[in-house]
Design brief:
The protein has one helix and 25 strands.
């Protein structure tokens, strides 16, 4: 039985997806100077959860992402040994009230001490969200392994398509976790999973120009290790229609994620599909996986850098030791470590 659920992205714990999603390629537009006051604060909100809050962001009305000044990256230092298990993003004003999620173009968390599973030229992308603001729920028994001192780079990009200016906006991400100490106290030990981002732009920048009318862009990956794909979600932009993931080696469809859009073609959500009831979808080393993003841009105008197409899932390797080579030396401590 196949389960789908809304809320996110890229995307799911079960699958990372959306919006995540959606920033597999890291890029900033505009001058970072105007957002130089953005800082990061961290608050413990439960015994097993903390909130990372970034801001304040000055978001003037009617400003696209390529004209919006963007903030520099900030770095979160992991304070424990254990696993990250869930992410819940939200946008707030200066008084703590929720504001429109579509102001967020994307946020991405990157582990600077590990290479990405499918794109070793990149840092490991562990969480992403966009205007869909999908929550990544916990996947019982599984988590993303972290160690005290690991540095997580947090990159953000905003835009404001609305008629309201937000001079003090904040991005808050609640992160739930399980520590080794909790496991020692009796909580079952988690199995470590790895994010697998299938991007139509493969291992380059994720954004690409959106043509008018119907368009399909594809990318392909050769899976380097055997293992189970536990679920899959996705990230698209406005006018996105679907993401289709296919195992070309076996000539079978892994999943098709059909987006929900409004009457204007603006993206509302991308679903997440899990394979837990069937024990996961097994990928063999060397399998060729193809991802295709379908768009229908009926605005009558092309959109520069207006599209992304990313399917992302959690991958459980058959041989965990084979993933140890993803570790890499971390650079000197940069600005913004917390």
């Amino acid at each position: 039985m196949k389960h789908t659920m809304r809320a996110w992205a890229i995307a799911a714990a079960l699958a990372l997806p959306t919006a995540a999603a959606a920033q597999h390629g890291h890029h900033h537009h505009g001058s970072g100077a105007a957002q130089k006051d953005v800082t990061m604060t961290i608050h413990q909100v439960a015994s097993d959860a903390l909130e990372i809050r970034l801001g304040p962001y000055d978001l003037p009305a009617h400003t696209p992402h390529d004209a919006m000044p963007q903030a520099p990256d900030l770095y979160w230092v992991i304070p424990f040994d254990g696993w990250l298990v869930a992410y819940s993003p939200s946008l707030l004003d200066g008084e703590g009230n929720d504001i429109e999620a579509k102001l967020l173009h994307h946020v991405a968390f990157w582990n600077v001490g590990r290479a990405d599973f499918l794109c070793p030229n990149k840092e490991e992308h562990i969480f992403g969200a966009g205007g869909e603001m999908t929550r990544w729920p916990p996947l019982p028994g599984f988590g993303y392994a972290v160690h005290r001192g690991d540095r997580i780079r947090i990159s953000t990009m905003f835009h404001n398509p609305t008629g309201t200016s937000y001079p003090k906006a904040y991005l808050a991400v609640q992160v739930s976790y399980v520590t080794d100490t909790a496991v020692d106290s009796g909580i079952p030990k988690l199995r470590s999973v790895y994010p697998a981002w299938f991007d139509v732009m493969e291992c380059g920048e994720s954004g690409y120009d959106l043509k008018t009318g119907e368009s399909v862009k594809t990318g392909s990956f050769q899976v380097p290790q055997a293992g189970l794909l536990l679920g899959i979600g996705g990230h698209l932009h406005d006018y996105g229609r679907s993401l289709t993931v296919t195992n070309e080696t076996r000539k079978e469809q892994i999943a098709k994620l059909v987006a929900e859009v409004d009457a204007k073609g603006l993206l509302e959500s991308v679903p997440v599909v899990t394979f837990l009831s069937r024990g996961g979808y097994h990928l063999a080393a060397g399998d060729k996986v193809r991802v295709a993003a379908e768009y229908m841009n009926f605005s009558g105008q092309p959109v520069s850098d207006g599209a992304m197409g990313i399917a992302v899932g959690y991958f459980l390797p058959d041989d965990a030791a084979a993933m140890n080579g993803l570790r890499r030396a971390q650079k000197e401590k940069p600005r913004g470590d917390k």
